[in-house]
Amino acid sequence: MATWDLSKTKHHVLICNGSSCNQVGAEELTQAIRREISNQDLDEFIHTTRTRCNGRCHDKCVVVAYPNGTWYKDLKPEDTKIFIDSLMNGQDETGKVSHVFSNEGFQRTDGIVTGISKEKEKVMKVSKKH
Questions:
Q1: Structural domains in the chain (count)
Q2: Cα torsion 33, 88, 79, 106: sign
Q3: Which residues contact 14 (CB under 8 A, 6 or more apart)?
Q4: Residue 26 in domain
Q5: Structural domain that includes position 71
Q6: CA–CA separation, 3 vs 81, rounded Å?
Q7: Residue 28 covered by a domain
Q8: What is the mean pLDDT of each run of 10 residues along the chain (130 residues)?
Q9: Is the torsion defined by CA of 59, 60, 61, 63 positive or negative?
């Protein structure tokens, strides 16, 4: 197993390879992103991690970029150059951002499905008086 030197890393890209994303080309997207990083000689600055499901299957293929915390939807191999350029320029040019991070949490962009709430049901215990 590799232990990468991340001291020059500016971006960490999480590429969903869960079952829904895999059905629409996540492996091809993963390889295309890694190839574009290499072609632009950015290996020291952008680190990629293949993940399992990121929980936004409706938005497949899903990619999350940190440290900004930007979530992308519907990325395809042909989007990789503009995606990498957007990371390095600090401004989205893909038109495929689904969520952006702010101090209040992740904010959906217009037209993005809300999704299922992660809030747990509150269970009230009722005790019987005898």
A1: 1
A2: positive
A3: 48, 49, 51, 54, 63, 64, 65, 66
A4: yes
A5: 11-108
A6: 27
A7: yes
A8: 88 96 96 98 97 92 95 96 96 92 86 76 47
A9: positive
CB contact at 8 A, 72 and 66: no
Measured CA to CA in angstroms, residue 126 lies from 66, 102, 119, 120, 122 at distances of 45, 39, 21, 18, 13
Characterize the bridge pairing of strands 70-72 and 63-66: antiparallel
pLDDT number for residue 2: 81
Question: H or E element: which one contains 87?
Answer: helix 80-89
At residue 110, the pLDDT reads 81
Within 10 angstroms of residue 66's Cβ, the number of other Cβ atoms is 15
Instruction: For tokens 């989205």, name the residue.
Output: 92
Cβ(15)–Cβ(27) under 8 Å?
no
pLDDT at residue 114, as a whole number = 80
Residue 42: which CATH number? Answer: 3.40.30.10
**Whose structure tokens read 């037209």?**
111
Q: Which residue has the tokens 């995606």?
A: 83
Q: Give the C-alpha separation, 110 to 106, whole Å.
A: 13
Residue in this structure with the two tokens 């629409």, named with its chain if needed: 24
